Amino acid sequence: MIVAGVDEAGRGPWAGPVVAAAVILRGAVPAGLDDSKKLSAKRRDALFEALQSSDCLIGVGQASVAEIDRINILQATYLAMTRAVEALGETPGHVLVDGNRLPKWRWPATAIVGGDGSEPAISAASIIAKVTRDRIMAELDAAHPGYGWASNQGYGVAAHAEALIRLGATPHHRASFKPVRAVLQKLQG
């Protein structure tokens, strides 16, 4: 049976898309796969490149800030996960998802709490999603300097909160998130 692992990156930040990856491990699998949060940026990047050049099938899906604001972050995460599985180019017989909830979709699936550290296919998806999103945020940081997105990835750290007040919100900020909404309301009136 073809099994895909799925994980996401970027549910909690105030800015940027949520990104999901789906991975079907095949052939020689890179050693050292683990939860992306447990790996250094250098090790994540090395594993990302190794996975990209392997025989593994990789699908990436995103949900935009507009989608997050329209349907909420949980549903946007499910949308990104669905897009990632659809992008694999091969239909999995089963999908393993990191977490305790599953999207409503057509593939048989199992939610695994801590799966990003225990299931190699989910670990691989964790790495692909995290590195992909970090690179997106670095590009957005170059286009919108001052928020520190290259280093904080859009999370609500103090420097980002200060920049949000000082510089205002960008189109890449999630207006449905309370801190961003508060700044927008303050500017409107």
Primary descriptors:
189 residues; alpha/beta; Nucleotidyltransferase, domain 5; 5-stranded mixed beta sheet; 8 helices; 5 strands; globular
Summarize the structure.
The protein is an alpha/beta fold and 189 residues long. It has helices spanning 41-52, 65-71, 73-86, 115-118, 120-143, 149-152, 158-167, 178-188, and strands at 3-9, 18-24, 57-63, 94-98, 109-112.
Mind explaining what this structure looks like?
The protein has 189 residues and is an alpha/beta fold. It has a domain at 3-133: Ribonuclease H-like superfamily/Ribonuclease H (Nucleotidyltransferase, domain 5, 2-Layer Sandwich), CATH 3.30.420.10. The protein has helices at residues 41-52, 65-71, 73-86, 115-118, 120-143, 149-152, 158-167, 178-188, and strands spanning 3-9, 18-24, 57-63, 94-98, 109-112. A five-stranded mixed β-sheet has the order 3-2-1-4-5. Strand 1 and strand 2 form a beta hairpin. The radius of gyration is 17 Å and the shape is globular.
Give the end-to-end Cα distance, rounded to a whole number of Å: 57 Å
Tell me how many strands there are: 5
Mean pLDDT: 96
Which CATH architecture of the domain at 3-133 would you pick? 2-Layer Sandwich
Order of helices and strands: EEHEHHEEHHHHH
CATH topology of the domain at 3-133: Nucleotidyltransferase, domain 5
Widest β-sheet, arrangement of strands = 3-2-1-4-5
Using the alpha-carbon principal axes, give the shape.
globular
What is the radius of gyration?
17 Å
Q: Percentage of helical residues?
A: 40-55%
CATH superfamily of the domain at 3-133: Ribonuclease H-like superfamily/Ribonuclease H
Major beta sheet, specifics?
5 strands, mixed
